[in-house]
Amino acid sequence: MKLTPLIAAAFLTAGAAMAAGTHDGGHGHDDGHMAGHGHADMMQVGRPGTPEEASRTIEITMRETSDGEMLFEPDDLSFEPGETVRLRIHNAGEVEHEFVMDTHDNNEEHRKLMQKFPEMEHDDPNAIRLAPGETGDIVWSFANTGAFQFACLIPGHMEAGMHGPIHVQSN
Predict the structure, then answer these.
(1) Residue 98 C-alpha from the chain's centroid
(2) Whether the Cβ atoms of residue 97 and residue 62 lie closer than 8 Å to each other
(3) Cα dist from 97 to 80, 116, 156, whole Å
(4) What tens digit of pLDDT does each residue of 54-104 get?
(5) Residue 45's Cα: distance from chain center in Å?
(6) Fewer CB within 10 A of the terminal residue: the chain, N end or C end?
């Protein structure tokens, strides 16, 4: 069978799209990310919560500075084990940003995958992607103690400063 350039392009595009995934199912890297379970199940950083469970709301702003730095405000988050919070995230910047919570290693793996597939669709309860001016919520239960990370994994954003620690510990 002879492939015309248009048909060949369609096959290549479809193959790339299937390789990219959609974040639904965690990009196929279930080694600790979701431990082979659906997203409703526990991740190391915790699990999705319900609005009724949230004990407080944390306002988080994503933005860029005039010198090219990209940042989150606040840039450090702390929670108690078992605490459920509403993270209200606002993109006050001029470009699209995302907020992703996970372990440092999983975020690094995800960042590398995003470099290969920057237009990847997101459908994870621990992440949100917002256009300039948009606001969105993540309701999350931090079940496990430990050190985790939040970051913007859009190519170049983490390197420009968009990351910070999440501390989950008893006070």
Answers:
(1) 6
(2) yes
(3) 27, 17, 11
(4) 999 999 999 999 999 999 999 999 999 999 999 999 999 999 999 999 999
(5) 12
(6) N
**Closest CA relative to residue 151, chosen from 43, 58, 76:** 76
Q: Based on DSSP, count helices (H) and strands (E) in the chain, helices before strands.
A: 2, 10
Cβ-based neighbour number of residue 5 at 10 Å? 7
Q: Which tokens go with 82?
A: 């078992």
Domain of residue 90 covers 5-168
Task: Quickly count: other Cβ atoms within 10 Å of residue 160's Cβ.
Answer: 15
pTM: 0.76
- AA letter at 122: H
**Domain tally, the chain:** 1
Instruction: Name the β-bridge partners of 146.
Output: 168
The amino acid occupying position 105 is D
